[in-house]
Design goal:
Elements lengths: L2 H22 L47 E3 L7 E5 L5 H7 L4 E3 L10 E6 L26 E5 L3 E13 L14 E9 L6 E14 L2
Parallel strand pairs: 2-3, 4-7
Antiparallel strand pairs: 1-2, 1-5, 3-4, 5-6, 6-8, 7-8
Length: about 210
C-alpha cells in the first residue's frame, strides 16, 4: 500500500471515529464506524453540488482564536448569534468541552471563504451535562434550500445559502462534501432529535462577503 493511501485511510478512520463519538454519543453510546475518508482532491459525488457557477473572492483566513466572542453563526431559528469555537483536535473529550461554549468548527484545514468545505457541529439533544447548548441545533431541519445565514469573524461577515440537506446513516458520514472549488459549509447534528441513530447534514454555499475594513 502506498504511503498516501495509507495516510488517507488512517486519517479517515480517525475522523469517523471522532465524529461518531461526539456527534452520536447521546447517553454515551459506544459507536465505532469505518469511514473511507474525505478525498480533498476531487469534488464530492455523494451529494449534489451547489448550483452557483462562481464564488465570491477568497477572503483572508479568519482569526482562529478559540475565544467564543470572536466568531459566531446567526441562523434563522436562533434568537441571537451562536458562538463558534475552533477545535484544534478531533479528540472527543476536548470537543465535548468546546460544545459547552457553542458550535464547534472541526479542524479539517479549510477556512471560511476558501475553496472547500467547513464542517460545523453542535448538539440537537442531550442530558444537562452536555451544557447550555445541548439542543442548540434541534431546529436545524427547519432550514430549507434558499435560506441564508451569516458567519461573523474578526475580518468579515460571510453570507451562506442553503442548497441541500440530507439524513444519513452514521457510517455514511463520507457523504460530507470533499474538496470543491466553491466555499461551502456543512452543519451537522444527530437526527432525529433525542436520538443518535442518524446524522442530519445541511449544506450551504458562500454567496457574499462583507469585509470589515
Amino acid at each position: 500500500m502506498n504511503r498516501a493511501p495509507l495516510a488517507d485511510y488512517i486519517i479517515g478512520n480517525l475522523l469517523i471515529f471522532s465524529l461518531g463519538i461526539f456527534l452520536g454519543a447521546y447517553f454515551q453510546a459506544d459507536l465505532l464506524f469505518l469511514w473511507p475518508g474525505i478525498d480533498r482532491d476531487q469534488p464530492s459525488t455523494a451529494i449534489s453540488n451547489p448550483s452557483s457557477d462562481t464564488s465570491p473572492d477568497i477572503s483572508p483566513v479568519p482569526n482562529h482564536s478559540r475565544s467564543a466572542s470572536n466568531n459566531s453563526i446567526n441562523l434563522p431559528f436562533l434568537d441571537q448569534p451562536l458562538s463558534l469555537v475552533y477545535s484544534e483536535t478531533l479528540e472527543e473529550a476536548v470537543i465535548q468541552q468546546y460544545l459547552h461554549q457553542g458550535a464547534v468548527i472541526l479542524p479539517l484545514g479549510i477556512s471560511f471563504g476558501e475553496p472547500g468545505n467547513v464542517v460545523i457541529t453542535a448538539h440537537s439533544s442531550g442530558p444537562e451535562d452536555y451544557g447550555p447548548y445541548r439542543d442548540i441545533f434541534a431546529k436545524l431541519s427547519e432550514l430549507d434550500p434558499g435560506d441564508e445565514y451569516t458567519i461573523t469573524t474578526p475580518t468579515a461577515v460571510y453570507i451562506y445559502k442553503i442548497y441541500d440537506s440530507t439524513i444519513v446513516e452514521p457510517d455514511e458520514v463520507n457523504k460530507l462534501p470533499s474538496y470543491d472549488e466553491r466555499s461551502t459549509v456543512t452543519l451537522v447534528t444527530c437526527w432525529p432529535v433525542g436520538s443518535n441513530s442518524r446524522r442530519l447534514l445541511v449544506n450551504s454555499e458562500l454567496v457574499n462577503i462583507d469585509f470589515k475594513i
